[in-house]
Amino acid sequence: MQRIGVLTSGGDCPGLNAVIRGVVRAATNRHWEVLGFHDGFEGLLPPANYEVLDVKRCAGIMQLGGTILGTTNRGHFVAKVGEGSVARIPDEIIDRAKVTVQQLGIGALIAIGGDGSLSTALQMQEAGIPMIGVPKTIDNDLEATATSFGFDSAVAFVSEALDRLHTTASSHKRVMVIEVMGRHAGWIALYGGLAGGADVILIPEIPFDYEKIAEAVRKREADGVLSTLVVVAEGAHPHDRGELYRKAGSGEYKLGGIGEQVAAEIAARTGKETRCCVLGHLQRGGNPTTLDRILGTRFGVHAVDLIAEGRFGEMVSYQNYQVLGVPISHAVHKLKRVPSDGQMVATARAMAVSFGD
Fold first, then answer.
1. Quick check: 82 pLDDT over 70?
2. pLDDT in tens, 19-61
3. Do 178 and 280 touch, CB atoms closer than 8 A?
4. 105-115 tens-digit pLDDT
5. What pLDDT is stored for residue 247 in this prediction?
6. Residue 357 lies in a domain
């Protein structure tokens, strides 16, 4: 193996550059050359958009958020169009990418991305392009890995935001609602809410009742606590209706707005002054935490190891404190949700946290 490729695809998150650096350092140690493709899989289309990555190019990037290679979740290679639905990449598109791989003499391609990007990687593997997957999701919702880089950084930011909201909530005796990411899984809301001392946590896995939330606020008032912090995942919803969508400028419908709705209902039912704060893409930005730097580095190094062992079609996975490899086919289309009767939820309930149920 003389030359390999690497790309980042899908949404950005802290830790991507740590993976790239890990790949380059490990490959260079084996005397391999690494080509980094720009803007995800789009960089594979002729004329290829890439650069040579070496130790010098990757110096000082581990602590940076985002990705030096750029990324996209649109374009010709979108293989995920929603939960449980997969779009096939046209054969003509994959063939064009395959020509690039062959002309550049790339022996294997490392794709760093989430469920949709890994679905694309699987189709390319099936088409004869040697692929290695590296899971990336701040939502922590991939079943095949215990955790992924980016999640810890997102949770740390949510916790910091709650620390800041504590002071303004207590000063004004308000209810503060903070909306965080989490379309189908509430890991960020649960972990961030626990770390930040939230009083109410609303997640997609546990449908809630507005009156139950209001009761929790009233009980705190009766106990002499005049402020309340509520964390709500963007995919959380009442038990009698589905997720709340908003129309984006491109014409697509995206999740969003549940935070404002929860705030309005709390204010109407309790008479408490209530404010909503939507963190949005702030959770994706910033420098990675120490944990995400280490995990990203380990993922990058092990991806190179999988190539050296000829284990194409596999994805790096973190299990029981070890970085292993699992088939990409076993990893995609399987979301990891928060168990409603699991230990983390039980811990929160023991701390008198309400889930609105």
1. no
2. 999 999 999 999 999 999 999 999 999 999 999 999 999 999 9
3. no
4. 999 999 999 88
5. 60
6. no
Contact 33, 2 (CB under 8 A): yes
CATH of the domain at 34: 3.40.50.450
Domain of residue 263, CATH code: 3.40.50.460
Give the span between the Cα atoms of 326 and 278, in whole angstroms.
36
Distance of CA 7 to the CA centre of its chain: 17
Q: Within a domain: residue 338?
A: no
Residue 8: in which H helix or E strand, if any?
strand 3-8
Say yes or no to pLDDT of 92 above 90.
yes
Catalogue the active-site residues: 139
Do both 47 and 142 map to the same domain? yes
DSSP-derived 3-state class of residue 198: coil
Instruction: Let me know if residue 351 belongs to a domain.
Output: no
What's the token pair of residue 178? Answer: 């903070």
Torsions phi, psi for 322 (to 5 deg) = -115, 145
**Single-letter residue type at 292:** D
Contacts of 150 (CB under 8 A, 6+ apart): 13, 14, 15, 16, 136, 137, 138, 284, 288, 292
199 belongs to a structural domain: yes
pLDDT digits (tens, 9 = 90+) for 200-215: 999 999 999 999 999 9
Which backbone phi and psi does 5 adopt, to 5 degrees?
A: -120, 155
- What global pTM score does this model have? 0.90
